[in-house]
Write a structure and sequence with these properties.
The complex is a heteropentamer, with one copy of chain A, two copies of chain B and two copies of chain D. Chain A is mainly alpha-helical. Chain A has one domain. In chain A, α2 crosses α6 and α4 packs antiparallel against α5. The longest helix of chain A has 44 residues. Chain A is globular, with a radius of gyration of 20 Å. Chain B is mainly alpha-helical. Chain B has one domain. In chain B, α1 packs parallel to α6, α2 runs antiparallel to α3 and α3 packs antiparallel against α6. The radius of gyration of chain B is 18 Å and the shape is elongated. Chain D is α/β, with parallel strands linked by helices. Chain D has one domain: Rossmann fold. Chain D is built from five helices and eight strands; from the N terminus they run βββαββαααβαββ. In chain D, a hairpin with a 2-residue loop joins β1 and β2. Chain D is globular and about 50 Å long. The chains are: A mainly alpha, B mainly alpha, D alpha/beta. Chains in contact: A-B, A-C, A-E, B-C, B-E, C-D, D-E. Chains B and C meet through α2, α3 and α8 of B and α2, α3 and α8 of C. The structure holds protoporphyrin IX containing FE, adenosine-5'-triphosphate (2 copies) and magnesium ion (MG) (2 copies). One adenosine-5'-triphosphate (ATP) sits at the interface of chains E and D.
Amino acid sequence: MSIWEYANPKRFMQTSARALPWAVGLTVACLTVGLVWGFFFTPEDFKQGSTVKIIYIHVPAAMMAINAWIMMLVTSLIWIVRRHHVSVLAAKAAAPVGLTFTIIALVTGALWGQPMWGTWWAWDPRLTAFLILTLFYFGYLALWSAIEDPDTAADLTSILCLVGSVFALLSRYAVNLWSQGLHQGASLSLDKEENVSDVYWQPLVICIVGFVLLFVTMVLLRTRTEIRARRLKALLARERVA
Amino acid sequence: MKALLFRDLRLAMRAGGGFGLGLAFFFLLSVLVPLGVGPEGSTLGRIAPGILWVGALLACLLSLDRIFALDFEDGSLEFLATAPIPLEAVVAVKAFAHWLVTGLPLTLIAPGLAVFLNLPPAGYLWLVLSLALGTPALSVIGTFGAALVVGLRRGGLLLSLLVLPLYVPTLILGAEAVRRGAEGMAPATPLALVAAISLGAVALLPFAAAAALRVNLR
Amino acid sequence: MKALLFRDLRLAMRAGGGFGLGLAFFFLLSVLVPLGVGPEGSTLGRIAPGILWVGALLACLLSLDRIFALDFEDGSLEFLATAPIPLEAVVAVKAFAHWLVTGLPLTLIAPGLAVFLNLPPAGYLWLVLSLALGTPALSVIGTFGAALVVGLRRGGLLLSLLVLPLYVPTLILGAEAVRRGAEGMAPATPLALVAAISLGAVALLPFAAAAALRVNLR
Amino acid sequence: MQVKLDNLAVARGGVTVLRGLDLVLHTGQALILRGPNGSGKTTLLRTLAGLQPAAAGSFDLAPDAVAYAAHADGLKPTLTVAENLRFWASIHGTPDIDPALDALDLATLQHRPAGQLSAGQKRRLGLARLLVTGRPVWLLDEPTVSLDAASVALFAGVVRRHLAGGGIAVIATHVDLGLPEAEVLDLAPYRARISVSNGFDEAFA
Amino acid sequence: MQVKLDNLAVARGGVTVLRGLDLVLHTGQALILRGPNGSGKTTLLRTLAGLQPAAAGSFDLAPDAVAYAAHADGLKPTLTVAENLRFWASIHGTPDIDPALDALDLATLQHRPAGQLSAGQKRRLGLARLLVTGRPVWLLDEPTVSLDAASVALFAGVVRRHLAGGGIAVIATHVDLGLPEAEVLDLAPYRARISVSNGFDEAFA
Ligand code: HEM
Ligand SMILES: Nc1ncnc2c1ncn2[C@@H]1O[C@H](COP(=O)(O)OP(=O)(O)OP(=O)(O)O)[C@@H](O)[C@H]1O
Ligand SMILES: Nc1ncnc2c1ncn2[C@@H]1O[C@H](COP(=O)(O)OP(=O)(O)OP(=O)(O)O)[C@@H](O)[C@H]1O
Ligand SMILES: [Mg+2]
Ligand SMILES: [Mg+2]
């Protein structure tokens, strides 16, 4: 059996129905452990005080915001090449989730920026690139909602997602050339020495896993909703004709 | 194809066509910003490269929805899609016509408007050069955006929403080149990148745009 | 009349309608200007009042051509002109609907965008106040402009050209009020003038607009 | 109720196309305008509807007695059939749209967005608007374009009922409407000849 | 030259409207599509023109053999009649527009901007475009809308000459075109019945 079998809506509904309870359970477990550990059982930073704990939301949200877009890119490609409906509906389902993560990252970043940098917002490359990502999410969603016919919408948004990804990447480089950064670099890389100290690191990893699971759960749920909405629409259309 | 180009140019020149209006918008923005921001010369000089580029970008943007919408509404686009020229060529010709009507005049008039905004003299050459290299990208990207929204009634502002983020790299790099030029630094790197974006966009986006058009005509 | 208002609002909310797009444009401009101008906070803070006002103005401007053009194209406008409500009331209702869909949300979202542009904190209150008092003028003046160009195919950019000069006083005074507020000076005089312009425009322009409409329908 | 044309001339694009129209229509009467393409039927109807001034002569018809149906139907594609109709009904103060929906057989389509109708269905909706205006004088410009035979008959019935209820109808058309009782006016004799007699100042008519 | 439909089904807005169309048309043949409003004539013509995919089945008709005339005429109001036509002529590589102008009696109007034509004159210009495409298969959607009787006859002559020259025409119409030799296809029997058999997933056709 090939993996494409799961792109059959019926098949997908069955499998996802079985997977969902597990996904929900794991998500709740990871997030509870990670956040409680992070918020209540780690010391305060000597420099940042308790604001350092924003990291447990900010960093996972920021990571997932980018990964959600990447997932949308992949599923959009699958739709363009193989025309599996579940694939493109998963992209559609992921967009609002990704957008929410993006906004969470922006808001937590802003809350963090106020004590750390003395401003809610600075035109730092990473922040700017993130803002542009937000724009792409909005554009993508706006295009979906503007088109009536679902297949037309799927095709056009997939093309937009593809082209948009290229330009998002270009923006990232352009922005680097344009401004020096305030924001810290990657602190979770494996090959670097100066990772965040262990006390912060372990709960952070759990939180990141929790956010990944949260994303998967949300996307599964929303994809199921999209499939149902699509069926409902077909039923209504048929009733109209009858 | 030549027929299509000439028709588009002729339509642009006729009453109610787009020629000159992009230009007018560019002009008005360069006048409004000093009115809004206040008359201090030094501040204006500092923001001039950015404002001029933003102005050029908006002027392009505002004329985008003419590219396909009119042809769609009166049915010509369906006839063009069934005509013996590939849709990719139609898209490329339309982008080129848009550039001739918008991007080129903008580039030529920009130094004049830079005077209003107090751009330092060292920046003039780079302003013209960066616009000349960057506006083709704006036209092609815009044509792609217009192809995406062509089926929708008055996609105009949705179009802006879709296209503006795509314009970001060109804008940043173009304005950066002018700024560096105006401050006496070397503007070669951003300028080369702007040219690269233009080339890439011209080479690849017509295919994406034609695909989008086909979907929209369905 | 209430029916007309509700229809216009409903159309704006439907797919392809104008709601949110003016907002999106305002947002985009506030983001693009720093990208063009460069990231320095102090420069941005200085130009913020002007840029925000120019942005609000352009966002209004871009949604103007929807006011009558769609109704004209599908023939509704002729039917409305022969309907038992005075054309002046039609114009006023349409201007009001435009303000509800564009001016009001702009006013509400402006403080959020001011963050991006580093507006000094003292300016926030005056920003909201000046927009609240000034955007009705923008809508009414814009409706008048839209009535002038309604017969022309894609009058969009011609419309900009006609309306922008009419927007100038509102822009100058509105931005000045915010700038004074941001710098801790008294913003009362320009603010009062903005309010006066709005009142005058709301009271008088619907008559001019209705006259223009009648001519254009001929 | 009557419509009276008194030596009326109508112009389009600065050129007079019809002149010398003298005519009285009474309650219950229908008039069918005939004439080749470009003879000025649309121009005449627009003038009677008060949308453009008469070039010469005059006519007696209050603008608020007129319901005009042009080539374009004035439909909003994103609103449903019922929403479109209800809007015009409330503009004209008509409380109920159901009679109009039934008269043109639109009841089953009423929840469809107007943009998704076929050409003939759109046309039926456009004609239904006439009923909710509640106005006595109908000016119809090629009302049966795109309609199938059954709908044309339906429409003829609607017009007949309107006339019976004391209405008046002026209809421009090229095809047979199934209204044999209507008077037919051929516009050919009224075609304006070009006269240069009154000198250059006719450019400022 | 032939057009072949093989168990073709066509859909609009995600709903199949016609199915089971089997049909062969040969050189010189004209087919008139009849069916009430909303029966799917426009949808069928658009599908044959290659503008939308077939919902099921297939048809044999090269896209570059087709000239499609829709409800909209594709005219630019600011270009003159001759300019409009010359554009389509050069797109299709036809050197000369005079025969087309003469065939539809547009020669006297050729320097008028298309926006200033009356409804029927516009339509004639739209039909003239068919002649300059030089393509053998004409797909016409209600071509005689707004035409007066003389123009309808003119148009019938044009179609007849096209057929005699080895062409094919498929024409959707509600009125009589004066082409008694054409075959008539009533679409009623092909109306798609609703089948629920293939379960929910037909939503993802
Ligand atoms: C609105 C403002 C902000 C935005 C949009 C933002 C965005 C981001 C993004 C995109 C990442 C990258 C995640 C990744 O690379 O996978 C990140 C990570 C991070 N941010 Fe922010 N940030 C903001 C403000 C701040 C502030 C004010 C601080 C603290 C002073 C901060 C501290 C961090 C840290 C420590 C990381 C983890 C770095 C890493 O592991 O890669 N951020 N943020
Ligand atoms: N906008 C315009 N500007 C100038 N002349 C026009 C305009 N519209 C129509 N005309 C011309 O005015 C004359 C009358 O046009 P009108 O539309 O009234 O004709 P009609 O009888 O309705 O024809 P049809 O049967 O084709 O609809 C025609 O010769 C036409 O070419
Ligand atoms: N854009 C659309 N979206 C969804 N459904 C549509 C759309 N356009 C038409 N339909 C529906 O599809 C069916 C077929 O429409 P079509 O336009 O092909 O009919 P037609 O035979 O051309 O009718 P007419 O004689 O009125 O032109 C109709 O029921 C119509 O309501
Ligand atoms: Mg007419
Ligand atoms: Mg049809």
